[in-house]
Each structure stands twice: as structure tokens, then as C-alpha cells.
Amino acid sequence: MPGPRRTYPLTVRGLRDLAVVYVDGEWAGVLTEDDACLKEPIAGYARVELWVESLGRVDYGPRLGEPKRTTGGVLHERQYLHDVRARGLRLEALDDFEKVRAVPSWELPQDGAPGLYRGTVTVRGAGDACLELPGRTRGFAWINGFGLGRYWSTGPQRSLHVPGPVLREGGNEVWCWSWRGRPGRGPARRVPRCSGPSDVLLVRRPPRGRSPRGLCPWRRC
């Protein structure tokens, strides 16, 4: 955002569907289609990042085929911001398990950041299980390169099902794409151009079974 400019509200018009906002690398809030004005006004110069996420599409009615992005522009008070750059985050790049594993990790900043986090969980008695992310906010999870789905702290879902054939005895690699910092608490490591959660992952069987468990220290990609 250019400057110098006085402190004004930041608004996103035509947001589809949700955006996590970072200002100068610091988390600043979450915007939605119905609440698209940042609660804390900001001043320029500033580097503003919007991590926009689609929450699904409809297959009928007037919103059929609607685009998923910031469709109406970004305003600082009443002035549109120009030279906004956008790029897509291609999650299918994570389908290549060996290439992701080959990316070196690095130390994670204490306050976390959005991106890909990875760790290893040790399992005994591999079989159908659930993945829980204590302290998580929102993102996507994989085990051994298999996509489990999306997690979100608002619920009602509190865990992700892990099919038995995905797990193996001993070490299992866990990745989490997190939209806001680390999925847990504690130390973590990261890899260039990726980021995410920290501390503890609990893998357990559904209530009727015996539970394989594991603690997962995170590294950031």
C-alpha cells in the first residue's frame, strides 16, 4: 500500500469467500463476504497480504459459476489500491510426496505465519484412526502424502478420519497447511516458501478401537 497515508480502514469489495489479512508480516484479522472491513485501521506505507480462501460453490441459481477471489478491489478508506498482485496457491503441488520431503526445513518464527508445516508422528498398531490438531485454527492436513481434508476450529468437526492403509508402523509424515500460524503450541521448524503449525498432533483410533498415539514436533516448510 502506498504512502505516506493517514490511518484509515481497509475494505475488500466482492470478497469470495474469506481472507486472512497480514500487515507488514503481522496477523491483522479475518475478513468475510459479510464483514469485509478490517477492524483496526492501518496507515501507509504498508505491505498488505490477503490469503483468500474459497469455502465452496453452489451448482444452481444466480450465483452459479461465481469467481473465487477479491472481485471488487481493495480500498484504503475510499481510495482503490492499484498494482495489486495475485497468484494462485496450487495445492496439487503437494501430490508429489518425495519432492515435498526433499525441501529443507528452517526455524519457525515465534508468531508463526501461514504456510506448510510438517512433522513426524510415531504410530504403534496402525489402523483406522483420527487426526486431532489441538490449538489449530484453519487449514488442510495430509499424512504420508494422502490428503485428509480441511480443518477449522469453528467446528463442529473436531478430527479428521485417517484410513488404516494410509498409516504405517513407526514414523508417519504429517503436513498441515495453516492459514494462521502453527496448528499447536511450542517449537517448530519450517521450509522455504511454506509455513504452518507447531507442537502436538494426536493420532488415535475412533472410540471403539485401540488407539495408536503420537506426538508430532513441527518443522516449517
Could you give a quick summary of the protein structure above?
This protein has 221 residues and is an all-beta fold. The chain contains 1 helix and 18 strands. A hairpin with a 2-residue loop joins strand 7 and strand 8.
What does this structure look like?
- By secondary structure, this protein is an all-beta fold.
- Helix content is 3%, strand content 38%.
- The protein has one helix and 18 strands.
- The strands form five sheets. A seven-stranded mixed sheet has the order 9-16-18-10-15-12-13, with no helix packed on it. The chain has a three-stranded antiparallel sheet with strand order 2-7-8, with no helix packed on it.
- A hairpin with a 2-residue loop joins β7 (74-76) and β8 (79-80).
- The longest helix is centred in the middle third of the chain and has 6 residues, at 97-102.
- The radius of gyration is 19 Å and the shape is elongated.
- The two termini are 28 Å apart.
List the helices and strands and how they pair.
Elements: E1 5-8, E2 10-12, E3 18-23, E4 26-32, E5 42-44, E6 48-53, E7 74-76, E8 79-80, H1 97-102, E9 106-107, E10 115-123, E11 129-132, E12 138-143, E13 146-152, E14 160-162, E15 170-178, E16 188-190, E17 202-204, E18 218-220
Parallel strand pairs: 16-18
Antiparallel strand pairs: 1-5, 2-7, 3-4, 3-6, 7-8, 9-16, 10-15, 10-18, 11-14, 11-17, 12-13, 12-15
Helix % is under 10%
Mean pLDDT, to the nearest integer, reads 77
The best one-word shape is elongated
Task: Tell me the radius of gyration.
Answer: 19 Å
Gap between N and C termini, in Å? 28 Å
Structural class: mainly beta
> Can you summarize the main beta sheet?
7 strands, mixed
The total count of strands amounts to 18
Number of helices: 1
Order of helices and strands: EEEEEEEEHEEEEEEEEEE
Low-confidence stretches: 182-215
User: What percent of residues are in strands?
Assistant: 35-45%
Q: Which strand order do you get reading across the main beta sheet?
A: 9-16-18-10-15-12-13
